[in-house]
Amino acid sequence: MKFLCDACERLVPLQTFRTEAGGLVVTCGRCGADSRVGPPSAAPRADVGAGMAPAFEPVSAPPAVPAPMPLPGDSGEPVARAATPALRVVRLDSGPPAAPLTDEALFEPPPGVCPKCVGPRREEALSCAQCGLVYVNYLPGEPPLSDVLADAWRKLAARWEDWDAHDRLMTLAVGRGELAMVGRLYRVRLARAPGDTVAQRGRDEVVRRATLGVPSSLEPVGAHGPLDRMKKVALGVGFIVVLVLAVLVFQHLRSLSAGY
């Protein structure tokens, strides 16, 4: 809990305080000024009527504060010092509520946005202006998401504030060629929790990694694997063999024509 110090106008932690004359006095840890909350201390009347004993015991007043010295040019009358400012406690906002951890909230965007690219959707529009999706042709579960990445996203949602976990998920997505899918998941999170700063940072980091020339998510996983390389080598060897045979046939025909 913090309170606003009227002397220095800063939010400081509520650490040093004391009770004084039936009120709470809090000392600012920055400037040392006191702030008070509660009824001000005052001595009760000592006499209720002539010749009667006091109805209450007198209460000691707080120590008097010396009046400031008059400045040159003033009238010479001391200026009364303002009373100790009232304590104002400030409760900090904890931020937007966390999104639920159900699969619908984690993977499906809310109504009012494009179900594919999570862009803004107009009520009268029949297709998305960003990705071109015709809304009536959309099938749930598109674009497809691998089980590995879906399970990793569920685990990340349970420890959302751990940025190292976000970084590991993006690295996994880059290796699997699913970085664009992670960007969509961050946009889904922002559509359900617009004030989520972690989701905003994750979305921006996906864009940054995509602009660095990482493998495109449109390429199928394993497109540059051993089988693909073997096919390319076989095609190259076949082309060389055909070229050599063509040269030999040409030379043979040339020799036959020269013999006539």
Radius of gyration: 39 Å
Span between termini: 109 Å
Give the overall silhouette. elongated
Low-confidence parts = 41-62, 78-82, 89-96, 214-223
Oligomer: single chain
Number of strands: 6
Structure class = mainly alpha
Proportion of residues in helical segments: 25-40%
Average pLDDT for all residues: 75
How large a portion of the residues is in β-strands, by DSSP E? 5-15%
Strand arrangement, largest sheet? 2-1-6
Order of helices and strands: EEEEEEHHHHHH
Major sheet, described briefly? 3 strands, antiparallel
Which labels suit this protein?
single chain, 260 residues, mainly alpha, 3-stranded antiparallel sheet, 6 helices, 6 strands, elongated, transmembrane, membrane, transmembrane helix
Helix and strand topology:
Layout (H helix, E strand, L loop, with lengths): L1 E3 L6 E3 L2 E5 L2 E5 L6 E4 L50 E3 L12 H5 L39 H12 L4 H14 L2 H14 L4 H15 L14 H34 L1
Antiparallel strand pairs: 1-2, 1-6, 3-4, 4-5
